[in-house]
Records
---
Amino acid sequence: MKRLKKYWPFMRASIMQMFIYRGTIWLWLIVDVFQFAMMVFLWKAVYQNNDVINGFAFTEMLLYYLLTNLFFVFSDVEAIYAVAEEIREGRISLYLTKPISYRLRLYFELLGRSLGILILLIPVVFLTGFTLFLIFDIVWIVTLEQILIAVLYVPLVFTLVFSFSFLFGTFSIYTTNVFGISIFASVFIRAVSGQLIPLAFYPDSLLSVLNLLPFRFVSYPPLVLLGKVATADAWIGLATLAAWVLLFVGGTALWFRASLKKMVVFGG
Amino acid sequence: MRFFKIYGLFFRQYLKGLMEYRVDFLIGMFAFLMSQGAGLLFLYLIFQSVPTLSGFAVEEILLMYGVGLIPKGIDHLFFDNIWLLPRTIIQGQMDRYLLRPISPLYVFLIERFQPDAFGELVLGTILTSVSISRLALNVGFFQVLVLLGIILVGVFVFTSLKLLTASTSFWLKNSYPLMQITYNISDFTKYPLSIFPKAIRFLMTAVIPFALVSYYPALFLLGRLPFWQMFGALVLVTSLFSFLGYLMWNRGLKHYESTGS
Amino acid sequence: MEIIKVDHVTKNFTIYEKEPGLKGVFKSFLKAKKIIKTAVDDVSFSVSQGEIIGYIGPNGAGKSTTVKMLTGILTPSSGTITVDGLIPYQKRAQNAKKIGVVFGQRTQLWWDLPLRETFTVLKEIYQIPTAEFDERLAYFDALFGLSEFIKQPVRQLSLGQRMKADIVASLLHNPKLLFLDEPTIGLDVLAKESIRRTIKEINQKYQTTVILTTHDLADIEELCDRILLIDKGKIIYDGNVDLIRERYGSKKLVSFTLRSEEDAKKVDIDSFRTQDPDLQITLEGNQAHLVFNKQHLAIKDVIYHVLNQADVLDIDIADDQLENIIKAIYRHGLS
């Protein structure tokens, strides 16, 4: 724990930076709210003739997307851009000369970023949620255990996606199209995690494949809070996810060390 | 004439660059295909659970989607540089364009060629042709001509709106959020307009008129909207917005010249 | 023949001042405090064709604002500017045909195009006849050795190459006026020489009028006949380079090289301090450097005095550098 203390300033700096940019961030959040509104209309049309589809009622679907948007803050692929830029500008060598881990430093920086955005996001989510509750007469019951589980999932999900993005970020030594890489990665995660559409909508054949991947856990927090996943299953899932995270983190560490030479030379 | 000559010189370079940076190009195109693919996946999965969406079958929706993608792709291909306008203004790089004896807008537009957009073009063409054949639509010479007309005119719906929103940067400096919202709205015109309330429908038809390039043309091809209504509205609105976009650009330049960067 | 006329030109900018912090954000939303900054204040001057003008002043003095108005990309708040019979900010495209502009810190070339293609594009933009285009390209090739790097994309050029390329690009259409903004910044000595030589040649051969904005006073000393000094938006000096040196450059530097360090220490000029209280002496090994005001002390007196005190091997006499003169003017104004 003491070793991690030296990364606290990085995290704090990121959080503060988000606050400085709060104007811009809120502007982007308005864009998101607009998109969310469009989705509401879309799902309303989908549920025109059905009450429940694939285990989701209309109001549950709305809540699902609202919560997914909230938790999405911890599963963005920003690390790709950060790593790619630092490789490109040769800053990696700078960090390697300091007595801190490159990956850990970036990890805490991005964690701070996500936390900062989360804090700014909360009022927006509240307002949107409140409006939804008013318009659609939603009733929603949550237990403390569910909330606890959802919260515990967050750091694991964050670490998983961080490692995944980090890996993709290092691919920037093979191509200059970082934008392309990040679209690829984020679309992939959106599709296999249940952010695009609840995984329950996928045909069984595809589901069996998706269940082998750890990315489905990204949508577990909303699913647990909505009662779509039983708490017992959720606890087991937490352990499974933890194992996956260890695998990803270990794998990225090895990959990083192996390709370090290439990356340092690249920046020049 | 020199406008074409100049563009020829740039275009040759773009092609050369394409060949050189093949990997980047393929990754870009693939990435775009993927993000469109996600939208298609979403549609597909919904239609696994419901037979129609607001009274439209899946092929009909794919038709709207496909028809709208083609002009969007063409605009993306040739006029992508407009996205860089806010940054150019903020960084004070606008002067370069003003110091040459040629239209600054022209030089600004030709500086970028975005081959990633081929993904949109290919997908749009595939979706349009597949849905037309699946629906067994009567597509004769006239319909094809109309389709070409829609595509050609439709390009300028996207371009003029981009120019209009981007030009606000001359005053607001950072219009990216505005541009992004407009762009996101265009993404939603792949869905039938009937799912939206009246206010949004009006927005997408007259204010940010992307529906004129996807929804209404599809209705025409499905035989549910008379030609002259659909096409007339398209031409009218496109001309209006092209005029507004160009006007905004010029006003913006004037403002830039009186206040500097 | 007068090619530029600047007549009582003023340029004001409106800046909205925001208070720092959250309170400031809200306050500025409702009513922002307007501050009017005068970047150029009632400036008047004229330039004849074929002159090379040095335009100098501290940062923020109004140099680039003036140049922007002269090139037509900024409109004055009041006053008029005429460039070769046209008002540049009204007839921008027409004026652009007659001018060439080089920004030292930013390139006007297209980053991704090979240099040769860039020139060809400019040929089309300025509608330069092919014969003239080829001739001028050959001319610059001889001067700058363009063929060495003309096939490379602009982004791969070194700073020196890029600067040369920018200068060629600005002169391809044989403009009547050339505006240079820090053209030698960051370049090595050889490149600087090469560029200065070219500017001089072009000016002599084609009577190209040159407006040179620079902080490098060596540029000024080599190229300019006339300097315009601007500070806080006002022109505080408009005249000959030599004149400024004569009138305001009153310092003389005399360096004595003596036989030994002991000899150097023998140099004693305290007796002159009553005549020139600013007299300075610095000892460096076996050298003694004296700086004095030549209007207060006669050079022969100083030299004679030192010659009598110690064993002098060598004497170096120099005028005060233009740089120091300008520095003094910035600080104390003209007097």
---
Amino acid sequence: MIELKKNRLVFSFPDVHQEANLTMEFQRTLRIPDDGTDYLLPPGLGAFPLRHVDDYAQNVPESWIEHGGVMLPMYQSEAMWIAFGFGYGVNRYPFAVKIATGKINAVTGKEWQNGLNRRPQDYVVVPEQPWLDGYCVEKGVIRQFVAMPLGAGYSVEEQLTGEAEYGGIQIIAYPMKREAYERIKDRWSDAPVALASKALKVGSAKPFAMGLAPGGRMRQNIYDDTFNFEDWELEHSSRCFVHIANALVWRAITGKAPPTVPPTAKEYTKAGLPWFDLYDGDKQALEGAKGLKGIKSVLQFGKEKGDVPLPENETVDPKNVVMLRHGLRKDQVREGAF
Amino acid sequence: MSAFGDFVREAREALRQTEARFSVRQVAARIGVQPSYLSKVERGDVGPPSEATILRLAEDLSEDPDVMLALAGKVSSDLLETIRKRPRLFADLIRELRDMPDRAMLRLVREVRDGDW
């Protein structure tokens, strides 16, 4: 089951194990320039607010109510990363987590399917994978998740299917089997921790729904699953649809202001604030997804359309780089450093 | 020895295995108490600290504040206020919920609804 607590999704499987808890947060961040450079990890600028779509049923499109789940606000061309964490305490129960945008898998580029597939691996393994910043386009390189209006053609969903039907983010999490966790638990725990007011009369989701599109390139590995595939508890799963509302209509939907516009990469870097690099040399990474190889970045797509989708796209050269060791909890550093 | 003190020490020590910043001295500094006081709390030589200090400690150790308050024999002031407003209703409700399985309780807390997609 999934609960919403303080802008976090909390997945729990008490029927599998009392420790089978996973939290997920959607972090605001800088949009890295889309200039061919493979950038380091940008910071976390705090979590996006998350709300139940059912709480605003009068103000959101009918399709959102049909999909269920939660919603968050993003500005056009704003970036995000997904942080995987754990429940209270130091237990770190393993999960296989499948992430899609517009029902296109971010790791494989294939259309959404429930269930897990090992070869090619279509999921990330947490806690080994502390975060996911974008689409797995090459081995060791992702293209950043960047919000663009659904229907404008930029989203991965539209590029691959020709349709602007879903948008948003789709997630399904599978816990490790109880017996498998009990078998590995001792050595594992020694490892480093890493309302409706005035109705808007909304017919279609498209005027204010956002989809995620591929932004600039970033160095990031999607790790190979080191567990036995049989150790995943495929009988138990929880899934969630995370709708993305254009931040400009967030107040009209919820009555609350959206977060402010994040700084540009140039402003942030000029202020001497830190970027991050992760040492994970001993870990095996997945190859880039064949299905994502041909997708165009927001900039490339915009140029072909004659648009300027990313007004602030100047190259930056980060000098202040904080090296992270794999296993440190991401929120300890990327959220708390400034 | 106290359940609260043991819990704090175990949680802090588990974190200190990988991060030096979870020493008694550094945790005490972050939550605004003397290291000697935190040591006494962990040993059970003194009673649990105030609600505000427990909340800071829970935040620092990434532990559930409600669990820590319960171990200290306290109920958070926001919950107390809620109960005070409708005492009879909440007393009945809590007694009704006493034997309910965790899963059913969690449904009451409210799950994120999955739909058709």
